[in-house]
Amino acid sequence: VQLQASGGGLVQAGGSLRLSCAVSGHTFSFYAMGWFRQAPGKECEIVAAVSRSGRSTYYADSVKGRFIISRDNAKNTVYLQMNSLKPEDTAVYYCALGPSYSGIATMELEYDYWGQGTQVTVSS
Questions:
Q1: Nearest by Cα to 32 from 112, 94, 114, 105
Q2: CA gap 35, 115 in Å, rounded
């Protein structure tokens, strides 16, 4: 299984970025997906998750109302639209392949496969 994340970069506070994660080697539509992030000196935390159908989503309180997770099962890709970015959003962002059930996975240990990470830096 391969997960290829892209779309990170440097942006000013208040700006937007869209992360993409292309998945190969698994039947993408069978699996829940998630985005995590890890800032320097901090633990990895979940940012958002989406069910395999795309109908159910979860967001960390810190990003609610600003980030949107979505998926295109025809393209084997999950997205994270990040708006109104803040300096505290600066981190390496990882996409991850979750369990093959219809719900949402919010715990790191539920995810078996991870992408390589993409750096997001928000300047003040």
A1: 105
A2: 10
Q: Across-strand partners of 43?
A: none
Q: What is the pLDDT of residues 15-33, one digit of tens each?
A: 999 999 999 988 999 999 9
DSSP state letter for 84 = S
Mean pLDDT throughout 71-94? Answer: 98
Helix (H) / strand (E) element for 2: namely: strand 2-6
The sign of the CA dihedral 22, 29, 98, 61 is positive
Phi, psi angle pair for 100, to nearest 5°: -95, 60
Q: How far apart are CA 13 and CA 49, in angstroms?
A: 24
Burial status of residue 44 (CB atoms within 10 A of its CB: 0-12, 13-18, 19 or more): middle
* CA 13/CA 22 separation, integer angstroms: 27
Write phi, then psi, for 30 (nearest 5 degrees): -85, -15
DSSP 110: G
